[in-house]
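A.,

Following up on our hallway conversation. Structure tokens first:
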């Protein structure tokens, strides 16, 4: 499973690396709504939430589905501007001006993305002009809850009113907390953009793309960028640009804008924000490795101290070859390390790798 971007014919000068204030505000709102996704931002989220005006907090609840579980494309309006060569604004006001340039149809489709009511990377009929699609959108929104249904109904009945409401909400967030946050992270994002641009110039697109995240790669023969995600999608740059947007608040998310007709972009964690997340394939291997009861018991021993294959075989009443097979699975998943002591090889659980899977597992094997 992955999202791919066809960059056939794309020259290096049409790869642009630019921070976006509006995208970063969306990341900030997501981190406030889902602090569990971003434990490293816990202190910041607590500080912002504690001083947030209750009326602003209530207004944010009216539309938090735009950033809580689905990061809406309303935070990347540059992608929808005709010509597909537009860059994010240097300020939040400039980004919001780009949002105003989207058609009502574009804004409504992007804002209703949380309902999953329509195809994302295929051309669709005009939602606002199709009664059946409007009915279906409201039906799906209602399944998500009363708040989502009210928002969807308002949006379909009066798009300009909701657009103005959303713009003012973003400006109020800027005044309440985001201006200070942006002043702090903007220099880091600008430095990251300069670094990646220089890497692109000196080493080429393959090196620059690979540096974004372990989840992103370029096959130069097929001119295809692949982003390793638990979703499937495809887009192409065509005669437009490819925009890479660094984020300081977004780790571990790597977002791909691949909406039909929009300019492709990738939002990636800026350098130094957090370690790279494992690939989907590696994560799958680790979960499958830990799903076996014998390997769970082996992990209990290996979490406490290094053991040889023979020691583990005696402790579990199994043959050495059987233990070796289980150890090979754990090693392939990157969950154990080996250390030779004389003629013996000792195995030990890599607690740093396991910790990234969750504290419940560590507590279980150490109990």
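Then the amino acids I'd put at each of the 367 positions:
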């Amino acid at each position: 499973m992955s999202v791919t971007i066809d960059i056939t014919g794309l020259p290096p000068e049409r790869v642009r690396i630019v921070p976006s204030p509006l995208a970063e505000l969306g990341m900030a709102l997501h981190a406030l709504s889902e602090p569990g996704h971003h434990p490293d931002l816990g202190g910041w989220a607590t500080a912002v939430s504690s001083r947030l005006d209750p009326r602003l907090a209530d207004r944010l609840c009216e539309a938090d589905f735009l950033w809580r579980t689905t990061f809406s494309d309303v935070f990347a309006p540059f992608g929808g501007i005709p010509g597909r060569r537009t860059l994010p604004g240097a300020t939040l006001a400039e980004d919001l001006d780009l949002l105003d340039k989207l058609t009502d149809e574009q804004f409504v489709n992007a804002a209703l993305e949380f309902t999953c009511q329509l195809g994302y990377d295929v051309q669709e009929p005009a939602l606002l002009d199709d009664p059946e699609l409007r009915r279906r959108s409201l039906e799906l929104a209602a399944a998500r809850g009363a708040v989502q249904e009210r928002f969807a109904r308002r949006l379909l009945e009066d798009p300009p009113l909701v657009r103005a409401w959303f713009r003012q909400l973003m400006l109020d967030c800027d005044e309440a907390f985001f201006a200070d946050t942006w002043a702090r992270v903007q220099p880091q994002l600008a430095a990251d953009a300069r670094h990646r641009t220089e890497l692109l110039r000196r080493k080429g697109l393959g090196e620059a793309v690979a540096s974004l995240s372990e989840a992103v790669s370029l096959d130069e023969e097929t001119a295809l960028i692949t982003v390793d995600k638990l979703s499937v999608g495809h887009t192409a740059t065509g005669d437009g640009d490819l925009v890479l947007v660094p984020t300081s608040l977004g780790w571990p998310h790597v977002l791909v804008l691949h909406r039909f007709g929009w300019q492709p972009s990738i939002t990636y964690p800026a350098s130094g924000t957090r370690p790279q997340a494992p690939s989907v394939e590696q994560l799958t291997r680790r979960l499958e490795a830990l799903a076996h009861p014998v390997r769970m018991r082996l992990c209990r021993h290996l979490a406490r101290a290094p053991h040889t294959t023979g020691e583990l075989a005696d402790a579990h009443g199994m043959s050495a070859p059987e233990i070796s097979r289980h150890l090979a699975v754990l090693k392939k998943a990157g969950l154990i390390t080996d250390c030779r002591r004389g003629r013996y090889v000792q195995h030990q659980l890599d607690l740093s790798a396991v910790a990234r899977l969750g504290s419940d597992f560590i507590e279980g094997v150490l109990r």
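The first strand starts at residue 2 and ends at 6. Curious whether your intuition agrees with the design.

B.
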